[in-house]
Amino acid sequence: MPPPLPAVIAACGLTKRYGPLTAVDAISFEVGEGECVGLLGPNGAGKTTTIRMLTAFTPITAGTASIFGLDIARHPRAVKAQMGICPQEDNPDPDFPVRKNLLIYARYHGIPAAEARRRADELLAFVQLGEKAGARIQELSGGMKRRLMLARALLNEPRLLVLDEPTTGLDPQARHLIWQRVRQLKERRVTVLLTTHYMEEASQLCDRVILMHEGRILLDGTPAALVRSEVGEQVVELWDVEPGLLAFLDRAGWPRDGVEDRLYLYDVDGGRIAHEIEQHFPHQPRLIRPASLEDVFLRRAGRALRD
User: Fold this and answer.
1) Residue 11 domain flag
2) Is residue 93 part of a domain?
3) Residues 83-122: pLDDT tens digits?
4) Which CATH number fits the domain that encloses residue 263?
5) Burial letters for 99-127: b for 16+ Cβ neighbours within 10 Å, e otherwise?
6) CA pseudo-torsion sign 156, 161, 165, 169
7) In degrees rounded to 5, what are phi and psi of residue 169?
8) Whose CA is closest to 6, among 61, 55, 70?
9) The whole model's pTM is what?
10) Count of structural domains, the chain
């Protein structure tokens, strides 16, 4: 039996410090071939810093990281040659039209001219920009620019695709188109690492999610498993809380969060919470809904806003 293939991404004790600030604090995780893994967390959690270390754009302070078995610090050029990167910022060259942007970028990867033209045309069709091949960058909408960035990231036919908040600011149509393209790439066994603030996006695309907070990993697992273990089947939202209900909840000991005038009860007991409240407080205003990955995020990372 042949030995198992090395993980596509392997991070061990990965750390990044900026003076006294520790942005990423000794995290360890792996990503397997063909897997789509999402890095989640509030602003400042260390997601983008992690991405920048894994893509050899930011030096690693301590720990190790490898891509396809190659140490990133020792072999940055070889690592970058095997990955495609779609950064947070849209940065196509405004001096060239859409197709020319891809052809110029192909030169950085040493792709022959004829092959570059073929790939550019295929990718523009893939992201539904074929009719915009000759358009100036300034003529593109935000969603079109984002799709162009995805096409550019795929130009070198990467084995690993890194997407840093790929759909932020997009309308639903553009977002769903990118989701569909990522699914198609997964079917081709392309490994995907993405950061996102959209929990629905993570639930739709990711085989696994890693929740980061203050530079550390809080949770690592499949979206469905994390929802079951951290929140349960249902969330019961309460407002205008009736007298005596808080004392009742204290006695029951059910897990809950509160923000301003709202209480969030996490039903890990098969619908019992909703039943008990309906029985003892039938007039209490409430909303009963299925638990989601967003509930996991808010429960573990907190509901307070962060800059």
Assistant:
1) no
2) no
3) 999 988 889 999 999 999 999 999 999 999 999 999 999 9
4) 3.30.70
5) bbbbbebbeeeebeeeebeebbeebbebb
6) positive
7) 85, 0
8) 70
9) 0.88
10) 1
